[in-house]
Amino acid sequence: MLAKQTPLTKQMLSELLRASSSKPKQLKKIHAIVLRTGFSEKNSLLTQLLENLVVIGDMCYARQVFDEMHKPRIFLWNTLFKGYVRNQLPFESLLLYKKMRDLGVRPDEFTYPFVVKAISQLGDFSCGFALHAHVVKYGFECLGIVATELVMMYMKFGELSSAEFLFESMQVKDLVAWNAFLAVCVQTGNSAIALEYFNKMCADAVQFDSFTVVSMLSACGQLGSLEIGEEIYDRARKEEIDCNIIVENARLDMHLKCGNTEAAKVLFEEMKQRNVVSWSTMIVGYAMNGDSREALALFTTMQNEGLRPNYVTFLGVLSACSHAGLVNEGKRYFSLMVQSNDKNLEPRKEHYACMVDLLGRSGLLEEAYEFIKKMPVEPDTGIWGALLGACAVHRDMILGQKVADVLVETAPDIGSYHVLLSNIYAAAGKWDCVDKVRSKMRKLGTKKVAAYSSVEFEGKIHFFNRGDKSHPQSKAISEKLDEILKKIRKMGYVPDTCSVFHDVEMEEKECSLSHHSEKLAIAFGLIKGRPGHPIRVMKNLRTCDDCHAFSKFVSRLTSTEIIMRDKNRFHHFRNGVCSCKEFW
């Protein structure tokens, strides 16, 4: 590459660096020449080298080059911060910031967006709070890019009030700031807040773009707000906003997350352009809605058309097998991933969790346990949680206790695992063990996630909690529910008191069941719903056996389709039959 007899100039080395920007070995050779020829005394070539190394993600070598530099400018510190954040190395970024402060190097307006991002990745609230103080000290809190990153950090920490206060306090909120805030609301599961702020954005006459539309369609998908989502999409089309393939994929995903699979299929077939995300969205959506055969058939069509699936596609395929109890098929698809030479298809923890769920749902609990023990990666709480959920469904107290011990050790603050174990004991009538679990929860300060259901009506989302009387139409809902219960009892409905995990009298159990949030949402839907239109209920936790039976009877009584999405899947109730075929 380099002739010995040709004297090298700085200009020649700079051109070589440009030509070798994506070739790690060549960059290292050029670095050696720079050191040998003495051109390293001035930082310009090392700056170019550092930038190239950051782009290709070789952060170890980039740090080595940086440490050789004589008094690097703030631009170079920022370059290294950017590289650490992009390569998911937040701790290194934090150590670099500490070194920077120890050396008395003054940060500039481009430093803090990267450092704040690093702390968001770390998830360390105390560090984030301290860094916010540094931002104020140096007078950067009014800068839009810094304030936006701080808002996103607080949202990711779950500090909603701090995030909203900061966002409201921003003197100038451009479209970038609005889009970032809406996106992080959706990413952190605060879609109702995202919708609220989108309405404020429109009221302030801020012109939204395709990025806004994607966030809002995703928010509507999470909330099950199909009408609101379609209104936003229609408005975007009228205002000639670029509804590109990303927007169309988000719309497709929204329909599927609202249980509207037939409309989603039409949208998919009418798309002028489809990519792997479009196909994967349909496959995952079919699986979530219990249309497992359609999901697997679509996967076969995708392969026949020469499209390469990605890891999300396989998540949908494995989920489809899990929801239908297709154990052998699931094992075969998982083996395809393991044996693939494509690194992008190497099974991730989510795929292992899917396999555990597949085996667990099918009652193969010991096999699922052995599968976890033989995994080549360290099982996380999602994987153990899938097995504990299966133990709860199949009421395996012995294995459930083993798995719960692991989870309580690794994730003591997640209340749902304690609740699952408590429910396993309650189902077996071990009330003394139930008391011990609940006592432990109180000691640890672990809180149970409150169950709620929501239903959309005329562009507004109505939320219900168990026994909720706060709704303006609470009296009418209660009367409607009593009327329905009387009618379906005559049809053969008997409350499933096994779904009440409390040691109380039978009458009290039945009373508790009759006021579950799903039932209140369905009663409201029957009062307000339009004839011939389905009632869409979104539940944040797994629905109980009694509410499942109740929904079947109500769908038969009223000839109304009830589409219920719980934490795990969709249930489509039509004429007294559920799409899950009692396998859930």
UniProtKB/TrEMBL annotation:
PPR repeats lie at residues 73-107, 275-309. It comes from Arabidopsis thaliana. Gene3D superfamilies: Tetratricopeptide repeat domain. Residues 492-584 form the DYW domain. GO terms for molecular function: RNA binding; zinc ion binding. GO terms for biological process: RNA modification. PANTHER family: PENTATRICOPEPTIDE REPEAT-CONTAINING PROTEIN (PTHR47926). Signal peptide: none annotated. Pfam families: DYW_deaminase, E_motif, Eplus_motif, PPR, PPR_2. Belongs to the PPR family. PCMP-H subfamily. PROSITE patterns: PPR (PS51375). InterPro entries: DYW_dom, E2_motif, E_motif, PPR_At4g14850-like_plant, PPR_rpt, TPR-like_helical_dom_sf. This is DYW domain-containing protein. The keyword Repeat applies. Keywords: Repeat.
